[in-house]
Amino acid sequence: MTPQMPAYRLLEWEHPPQMTTADVPRPGQGQVLVRVAGNGLCHSDIGMALMPASVGELVGWAMPFTLGHEIGGYVEEAGEGAVDTYGRAISAGQAVALVSPSSCGQCRFCRRGLDSACPNGLAGRGYGRDGGLAPYVVADAARSVLPLNSLDPLAAAPLTDAGATSYHAVKRALHLLEPGSNAVVLGAGGLGAYAIQFIRALSPAKVIAVDQRPARLDYARELGAGETFAGVDGETVGRVRELTSGEGAELVLDFVGIDSSIAAGLASVRSGGAFALVGASGGRFKSPWMGGLPKDADIFTFQGSCISDAQAVMTLAEEGLIRSDVDVFPLERVAEAYEALDNGELRGRAVVTPT
Question: Which of 104, 130, 132, 268 could form a disulfide with 66 if both were Cys (CB 3.0 to 4.6 A apart)?
């Protein structure tokens, strides 16, 4: 009889997840079985419960599946030929984190190192396949396993998605962040907090953090933001212009993604700067492009990150250049953890541990 384990799963479309049981998986060739130390929670998990079958089946999702795509843990068993993302052999007991986005490694995007755009990555661990809100999870090693040295897998878990996604945005615009430059972070929540740290660690730019919650602004200053102010509204542009000698910022990162943040963010970018839309709250840009967009600016949007981003983030964390603050919940309190996440009650990232 196949051993069973507790698991937090989506069992049917448009119904909330439930704590139930699932088979303990076994690794095949080139795979690893990971004993989960911690799984970071993400706002996208909440939206998955509302997804209709027509959309889920279109992207290749199969019900039921275990939620959780930000995973850190220990190798329980390595299948034949399993190597990590650096091509090195994997041993049992090794501390690891797992690359969050799925990618095939064969398409033209993956061959260019742009695996965040892989068309085959719409289904993966925690989104259509069994994820990490359980004691064990299986992963294809060569495109997933990030070896850890001193970094606690519990703290590493949210770096695989929230951290790597923020890094992907910052890295793309680093060439603009020269001495005397300014970078605006709209939304100092989970992803924004990491972005503040990456900008401070990798550039001389001053960080201006904007959020509606006083506690998040306090946290942003603790992480190195040079200026903070409340709100993402009509006054945002004026405040940014005031803090940047009237010119606007070289980089604006929007981790909110509503109408007002998109409009304010674009209007806060100086000519030749960059605007990145990362927040996925359904916002739109309603102004005409002529006069509504900064001249000669780079405007980009994306979801997710690349394997190289996750590798870089783990290196920065191992070297103590960034930190990963987590609020830990046991698996039996996972529903409470999601509620705290949705209500903005957390200081760090919510991480659920099955042990």
Answer: 130
> Can you tell me the distance from the alpha carbon of 232 to that of 255, in angstroms, rounded to the nearest whole number?
11
Rounded to whole angstroms, how far apart are CA atoms 54 and 269?
Answer: 39
pLDDT above 80 for 58:
yes
CATH number of the structural domain spanning residue 48: 3.90.180.10
Write phi, then psi, for 289 (nearest 5 degrees): -65, -35
Burial grade of 160 (CB within 10 A; 0-12, 13-18, 19 or more): buried
Check whether residue 226 and residue 270 sit in a common domain: yes
Average pLDDT, the chain: 94
Burial of 248 (0-12, 13-18, 19+ CB in 10 A): buried
Query: Which carries the bigger pLDDT value, residue 50 or residue 39?
Result: 39
Q: Are residues 344 and 204 in the same domain?
A: no
Q: Examine the domain organization and report whether 257 and 180 are in the same domain.
A: yes
Q: Note the pLDDT tens digit of each residue in 215-254.
A: 999 999 999 999 999 987 778 999 999 999 999 999 999 9
Number of domains in the chain: 2
Structural domain range at position 39: 4-161+305-353
- Please name the helix (run of DSSP H) or strand (run of DSSP E) that holds residue 241, with its range, or none: helix 236-243
